[in-house]
Amino acid sequence: MSRKQMRINEFFGIKRFYLLLKRDVFIQYKTYLTGLGAIFCILFIVNIASIASYNVWNFNLVFYPLTLFIGGFVFTSLCFIELNQAQSRIFYISLPASSLEKLLSKLLITNIGYVTVSSILYFIFSVIVFLFNSVIFGFAHEIFNPFHPVILNCIRIYLITHSIFFLGAVFFRKNAFLKTIVSLFVIALVYAVYILGISSLMYIFSSFSRHIYFSFDLFKNFSQNGIVYPSVVRVIAGILLYTIRILFWFFLAPLLWIISYFRLKEIEV
Predict the structure, then answer these.
(1) Is residue 8 part of a domain?
(2) Does 121 lie in the same domain as 29?
(3) Of 23, 81, 158, 204, which is least packed with CB atoms within 10 Å of its CB?
(4) Residue of 85 and 188 predicted with greater confidence
(5) Do residues 85 and 193 both lie within one domain?
(6) Are 186 and 152 in a shared domain?
C-alpha cells in the first residue's frame, strides 16, 4: 500500500465505515422505532377522531410533515448522545474510526436513513388505518402518497434544515434540541433587530420634519423602446431572493456539515 493510500485510509475506510454504520444503526434503532411507534399511536387516534372530515382535507399532507420534521429533528439532536454522556464518551472516542467516518455514519442515519424509514413506516401506518376505518366506518382518509409534490418538497427542505440540528447535536452536550431551537430564535431576533435598525437609519437619513424625501421612481417600472423593465427596487429584491435561495439549497447544509466535522474533531482531541 502506498503512502498516499495509507493517508486516505486514515480518514476513510470502507470496511471500517460499514462496521461503524452497522454499530450505530444497531444502537439507535430501538430508540428510533420506539419514538416513531409513539408518534403513530397518537396519529392513529387523531386519524379516527378526524374521520368525519375525510373528504375535506388530506390528513397525510399535514401529519407526515410533522412526523418528518419534529421526529427527525429530535432524533437528529440525540444522535451524538454517546459523545455527550460521561459514561460512554471515552468509549465512543476510542472507537477505531476516524472523525469523518463517525460524522458520515450519523449523517447518513439521521438524514437519508430517517427519510427513507419514516416514509416506509408511515405508508404502512396509513394502509393499516385506511383498512381499519374502511371496515369500521365505511370510509377513511386516503392512503399516504410519498411522491406527492408537497411531500417531496417537505423532504427536500428536511434534507437541508436537518443540518442545523445536526450541528446542534455536535455542539451542545445537553438538551441539544431545545438549545438549537433557542439559538435559532436568538439568531432570528438579532436579524430582526438589525433589519429594524437599518430601516430606522434609512428613515432618519431620508426624512425631514417627519416627511420622507425619497425618490419613489425607484419603485416604478420604466419602459424604453416599447419594452417595460422592472423597477430598481424590484430588480434588487429579485437578486437578493435568488441569492438567498442559492445559499439555502446549495451552501447551507455543506457549510454546517463542515463546521460539524471540525467541531467533532475538536471534541475528540
Answers:
(1) yes
(2) yes
(3) 204
(4) 188
(5) no
(6) no
User: What one-character-per-residue DSSP string does 107-137 give?
Assistant: HHIIIIIHHHHHHHHHHHHHHHHHHHHHHHT
pTM: 0.86
Residues in the chain: 269
Residues 114, 24 share a domain: yes
Place of cell 424604453: 224
Q: Can you read off the three cell numbers belonging to residue 228?
A: 417595460
Q: Which residue has the higher pLDDT, 11 or 217?
A: 11
pLDDT tens-digit map of 130-165: 999 999 998 999 999 999 999 999 999 999 999 999
Domain count, the chain: 2
Question: Do residues 197 and 73 both lie within one domain?
Answer: no
Note whether 182 and 62 are same-domain residues: no
pLDDT: which is higher, 28 or 196: 196
Domain range holding 104?
3-174
Domain boundary among 115, 148, 174: 174
Which among 186, 208, 230 is the end of a domain? 208
State yes or no: pLDDT of 240 exceeds 90: no
